[in-house]
Amino acid sequence: MSIQVISYAEAWKERWDNFVLASNNGTMFHLQKFFDYHPKGRFNWHHLLFIENKEIVAVLPGAVMGSTFESPIGASYGSIVTNDLSFAKSLELVDVFSDYCREHAFERAVLTPPPFMYQKVITQHLDYALAYRGFSYDKHYISHAIQLNTEDFVSHFQSTARRYVHKYLREKALRVEMNEDYEAFYPILIQNKSRHGVKPTHTLEEILLLKKLLPENLALFLVYKGAKPIAGSLMFACNDQVALCFYNMLLYEYEQYNPIHIVMYEVLKWATERGFSWVDIGVSQDTKAENPMTPSMNLIRFKEKFNAHGLLRSTFYKRFI
Fold first, then answer.
1. Three-state SS for 98?
2. pLDDT of amino acid 248
3. How does DSSP classify residue 147?
């Protein structure tokens, strides 16, 4: 085979990130600049490059967990990043990766790619190549996303959501600002998450570092009642196609003002103006259920108010030993 697999080294950083930015399916979560927010030693990184004729044809961020190669680790999405490849080349990539895993005595590989709407050109060549070569699905999550195919997106909201938005625009009892007041945002996030018995994925310091590393990729929206921030949304501009709503939160004592409806309107307006095709509003799982695939019906119904539709966030796996 003509493709070679090599381990990532710092000297490849600029070429790696440039490849991801120009690729068909890469996201901010595949950038080496993104991984820099993790402290050294947190993960046993094992990023891979696929080289043909001295050129990068694919990259695969990942880490070793025991005897398993896993991608992503410390990120939302991972798996193999490519340009728009033929099926034959996709199959070759899967074969050389599988050979690499066997040669390095990995017992298992786990890959979670972004959903299809993150691609510039929609193709499932790589998915089929993985399935054909014996990769199975480890699990599926139901994720929800809103397609931005019209500037009149509010007309596609359910009636209740439309009414709250029109009231907001008419009465202006609340206001929404895009700013960088993460110190005001984070206590709301902490309080919101604690209500559900969980903690945020990131510390405040990690969010501030991500903003420093990737200043164009983070956008913070805060909803104010007078001078008080009562809700907000932290958006990640993942690539040219998709903006991801990573955190939506509110102070529940202000729930009667429907601030999440308001911030969703402003987020979708911003994303439309920025030229995104989709807003990903994340997975909709019941995190307290024994079965991790259990859907959160209330959360799904809420997302459907904004014309969100369900998309699979699937994880592939294969045992080699």
1. helix
2. 92
3. E
The listed CATH number (2.10.109.10, 3.40.630.30, 3.40.30.10, 3.30.420.130) that belongs to domain 145-313: 3.40.630.30
Q: Is 195 exposed, middle or buried (0-12, 13-18, 19+ CB in 10 A)?
A: exposed
Q: The domain at 4-134 falls in which architecture?
A: 3-Layer(aba) Sandwich (3.40)
Q: Which residues, listed in sequence order, are joined to residue 310 by a DSSP beta bridge?
A: 144
Span 152-169, average pLDDT: 93
User: Residue 114 corresponds to which amino acid?
Assistant: P
pLDDT for the residue numbered 1: 55
Q: What is the DSSP string of 228-249?
A: EEEEEEEEEE-SSSEEEEEEEE
**What's the predicted TM-score (pTM) here?**
0.94
- Residue 207 CA to residue 200 CA, distance in Å, equals 10
> How do the domains of the chain map onto residue ranges?
4-134, 145-313
Q: Determine what percent of the chain falls in helix, strand and coil, rounding each to the nearest 5.
A: 35, 30, 35
